[in-house]
Amino acid sequence: MGKLKSISLIPIMIILALVISYHIYYHFMDNVAEKEVENFLAKKDIKEISTNNVEKINTIKEKIQGVLEIPKIKLKKEFYDINSNENNVNKNIMILKESKMPNINNSILFIAAHSGNANISFFKNLDLLELDDNIIIHYQNKKYYYTVSKIYELKKDGTLTVNKNIHENMLVLTTCSKNKDKQLIVVSKLFQTI
Questions:
Q1: Rounded CA gap, 171 and 191, in Å?
Q2: To 5 degrees, how large is the angle CA 110–CA 179–CA 109?
Q3: Cβ atoms within 10 Å, residue 111
Q4: Would you list the domain boundaries of the chain?
Q5: Which fold has domain 64-193?
Q6: What is the pTM for the complete model shown?
Q7: How far is CA 138 from its chain centroid?
Q8: 127: which of 153, 164, 174, 187 lies 20 to 30 Å off by Cα?
């Protein structure tokens, strides 16, 4: 009877060890990502993190292009070049291919990310934004300040429809809505560049 109890505890101990390892790994990765964003915003080069973490070092080689900052929901997240392997909604926030970066006149920058409860759910609180909230893009040593001008939902079908004045620079954020068959669209307009 004693051996049976100890044998049945082994799978539980293995599961606990895996869960704890998972949380430690993602806690470490979150700290590394926060340092990357801080270094980028402070305009420092990222030197070396940990030689034990090959995956993250390879990620660092993919140079950060900028940072999306949404003060209301306390989000500061780096983004990568459109052609980078790190520009992937299953890893980070993602710049969509149709985007024109904010340094281009009449630009429209599309950024997508997951909502939900996973570690990659960077837009989980996007639905808390309201009209006139501010969003900042840090890109090429400038800050682009946007104000939310429209929030709406569309049927989730892989397309995104936005009405744009040709003389405006815009930022469009999108994620899955709480209503699972729709996607949330947050449109903002550039009002200041510093």
A1: 11
A2: 5
A3: 23
A4: 1-61, 64-193
A5: Sortase; Chain: A; (2.40.260)
A6: 0.73
A7: 14
A8: 164
